[in-house]
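My hope is that you will study the protein record below before we discuss the fold together.
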Amino acid sequence: MSSIKKLLNWPKIMRKDKKNKKIVLRQAQHNPEWSRRIVCLGGGNAMPKAVLAGLKKYPVKLSVICAMLDSGGSAGRLRKDYNIISPGDIRRAFIALADTSPAVESLLNYRFETGELKGHNFANLLITTMELANQDYEKTFEEMSQLLNINTNHEVLPVTLDNANLHAVLENGKVISGETNIDIPKHDGNLRIKKAFLKPRAKAYPRSLEAISQADLIVIGPGDLYSSLAQILLTEGIPGAIKKSNAKKVYICNLMTKYGETNNFSVLDFTQEIEKYIGGAIDYVIYNNKQPSAPSLLTIYKKKHPELLGLVKINENLPKEKFIGRNLLKTDSIEHDPKKVSKTLISLCKR
């Protein structure tokens, strides 16, 4: 059996050897014939849940490059109060890669509901405490990985350590400042975003550039187009590193459009915006081509997430050699199924 076929059949192999699965996984990850270097870029909840949760079960080496410019919520408050990098998106990546008990995961996701800590997430506070105590971000990242028992082949990286802010120019010329104001618009969200920029400019974290240069596969998204992904691609050095890399470049399109960011967007609209900020072409675009199993699922999901407008439109006659349509949905929700996503990504390693 070829190494790629073994990769694709990896979940079956692991099920047959449940007792020694950690040993088998680590041995495979140290085998250069098996171990692919995959870089994942994103922020928010979408990428960790859709991509990392599935890929961490395969014998690959993951480098996760996270958005760092939260300006609202718990992470934004901590960033402002303590002059640190935002812990929000990096926290989600750490938790997605963690090998801990459900009790520990529940603790890390705990959010205070009353008192002075109201709104704060426990893991955000933990990372902030470690940053303040260490005064060394690299040490904090290493300690978080050890604390959460993350496989040593994986790493979580910030896209930048610089203190910048995200801004968006609307079609009427108005400038919206701050990630949270783009994410949760106080302006007329029907106005299209013409472009986004960082001010002041931010330089990429060197280790993130190194990871991109060594990658076999670069995965962008899914995630909010402007408030998560664009801020990564606007960081100085990132677009150039992606274009220069010999890795295959993959974009995972969102399932739904979002008010204030991607109203009425199609698969091609998402792709063209991503390519605009990279300054070059993507090799593959993975998108969902399956309708929910029951129409009520969409109604229920939109009630929970009122900022989401509808399913992303699929353009006619998309080139099949670049645009890969798959059933990527969970059976009971309008969310990416990490098993389906990871299997599709692993299959691209053989192309």
Residues 122-134 form the longest helix (13 residues). The chain has a mean pLDDT of 92. The CA atoms of residues 208 and 282 lie 19 Å apart. The two ends are 17 Å apart (CA to CA).
